[in-house]
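job 3f2a | input accepted
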Amino acid sequence: MLVVRTLPELRAASGGRGDIGFVPTMGALHDGHIALVHEARAASATVAASIFVNPTQFGPNEDFLAYPRTEEADLAKLKAAGCDLVWMPDVATMYPPDAASTITVAGPALRWEGKIRPGHFAGVATVVAKLFGQVRPQRAYFGEKDWQQIQVITRMTRDFLLPVEIVPVPTLREPDGLAMSSRNRFLSPQERAIAPALHTALADAAKRLSVGWTVTEAMAAGEKKLREAGLTPDYLALVNATTLEPLTEFSPTARLLAAARLGRIRLLDNLAAN
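job 3f2a | predicted structure (274 res):
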């Protein structure tokens, strides 16, 4: 496995590799990330991953400095998973002082995380577009845990006619249903015991909708369940799976989205509504 940190090294390493499957990450890797590498490995001649904690997607009161950096462990996991190339740029490489362009996003970026975290998805879209331009993959793999992020990146890729196929990979979960996330390591033992209630609330909402509850009734019951468990919901909503617009009537192709606070950690999850 080759690790490169400068653009000349990347160009030399990626030249002539042909078909590339790409897994962009911010490090602090867990089994969910490794599942993306395995998906890429199954379909690509070369598997490339990136590790870059992107400052432009963090708000002023968010945890950029506290975000876990575990480079040695991350590289060991990537090597064991069969990754061929790891791109590890620094901030100056990604955002040189004379850079004059960023991406403005709308559509699926406007609601939910986009409303709560202004500027977040502009930072995500900009860094992903840069990574695509640097690595030049044929396919890029993203976990479905961040469902809204996938829709934003898919729309950006389509709007700019980028020659990259966006491949969603199902969320990997702990045995109790909690979606794997780099931030789970910050949960206290008591919080970790509570955290699976987010997935339970989503699953219960899906069941209620399937037996005829209205969307309003099912969402209200889900939020109540979250509060009773000790979580503070930011939102629980039934949405169009692609546009992320809220729905007032059940559709089997819809998506349930949820975000809730537990101590200092925000948990995100989603589930197909059917």
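job 3f2a | Residues 182-272 form a domain with the Pantoate--beta-alanine Ligase; Chain: A,domain 2 fold (CATH 3.30.1300.10).
job 3f2a | closed
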